[in-house]
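Supplementary notes for students who missed Thursday's class. We covered one full example, reproduced here. Read the sequence, then the structure, then the short commentary at the end.
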Amino acid sequence: MILANLLPGRRRTERSIAKEERRIRSVTRTHVGRVRTVNEDRVFDCAERGLWAVADGMGGHFSGDVAAQRVVDALRTLVDSRPHFDDGMIDAALNRTGRRIHAEAGGSARISGSTIIALHIDRDEGMVFWAGDSRAYRLRAGRIEQLSRDHSLVQELVDAGALAPEQAHRHPQAHVITRALGTAADVAIERRAITVAPGDLYLLCSDGLARGQADPDLLDRLDGPLDTIADRLLDDALTAGGADNISLVLIAVG
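Structure (token representation):
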């Protein structure tokens, strides 16, 4: 701003599951950062059901941590209550949660919201869900690709040709987002279908990690054991100033 209220500091988990002779491992990190006093990030890690997410509560607004918790609670309820679920059910659960956050905020004077970046893997197919500027990346065959596209003022400037992509991560308004769950009664969740292959490495992260670095810099950090990569990413973000909460999920497909 993982699954529970966090004190400032780190929390780490590692989970794995074999799916049709394919091993999927995941690790998480979350940290309050060096400036904030409350961690408004939440992470969701359910490797056994092929679903992961990072929710970033809107800092400086009413109950951003509560909004982010609502998001991960909705995903936990979905996987706990159904033996099978699909992408449509995930989308519906996120939309219901957005409407609930908006209703609980009680109107525009008490805006509350949360970004969401989620990944669902089912065999060799995947779906990325997002609203806001939390991101999903995929490392495949030595190439890094951002799978999501920020819902942000800076991204709109890039799309309009008013800002070069390589300048976006240093822009002073890089934190201004244009979409988040709960900021309106109905917020469109963007989706992207992807293929999943052995050797893939996926990174889901809040903007506290993504902001301030370009994709080529990130590529250099995604080498080694999962725990080593996760610690390196977190430590680098803290060394860079840690002005925001920092959260990430790494998912390795074997």
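Commentary. The longest strand covers residues 22-31. Residues 71 and 97 are 6 Å apart (CA to CA). If anything here is unclear, bring it to office hours.
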